[in-house]
Amino acid sequence: MNNHEIDYKLYGDDMQFVEVELDPSETVIAEAGSLMMMDDQIQMETIFGDGSSQSGGLMGKLLGAGKRVLTGESLFITTFTNVGMGKRHVSFASPYPGKIIPMDLSELDGKLICQKDSFLAAAKGVAVGIEFQRRLGTGFFGGEGFIMQKLEGDGMAFVHAGGTIHKRELQPGESIRVDTGCLVAMTGNVDYNIEFVGGIKTALFGGEGLFFATLKGPGTVWIQSLPFSRLASRIFAAAPERGGSKGEGSVAGGLFDLFGGDRK
């Protein structure tokens, strides 16, 4: 085993957090801003990249950090190390409503491909890199960008997704079409491509975008029912325009007027 062996426990249902148990000298890495709480005797450190190539000198650190920049993440990642004598705990929370999915990379042939913003935390030694798509169509028309994250190693990793999570086992030759934003993760042996939605009316007025992700087995796919991009677009569409009325036609709007609120 190259990765630290960590134990964990999930709490909650739709607003989950994961509690990681660290033995002395064990370390977990996490995205900046994902920390919820931690015991004493846990030391925090900010490092370049993901910590999997710290022994490679400055160049290794810069390459790791560069990979994270390409996926839209920060140059830095945070490590949490148990420097005490007994077991300690550190907890990480999802940034929006949904589920946290524990992934044992040793059971997934050491590789998992996921959406670039779904990584939450992992055992130290898990490499967080980039996965360039093989097809030009996938790169430019995938809806979620042409780069996805690649998690490699033999330890535990945690990814988060919105809404309800559906795990689908694809048999050899079996294929499904998924909205590009709903794809959370897949094992490295899944064939991934983009398929154009046929028909001008369907493409322009169907409301589902112009392209689907086509996934072909064998392999495992994780799908989310509520991508954050979809949730954010609905909230943005429902928000009042700047300078417009607030809560017009609603009980809240009436109460706003009753107490002399400024509707500008």
Automatic annotation (TrEMBL):
Gene3D superfamilies recorded: Mitochondrial biogenesis AIM24 (3.60.160.10)
Name of a matching Pfam family: AIM24
Protein name: TIGR00266 family protein
Organism the protein comes from: Ornithinibacillus halotolerans
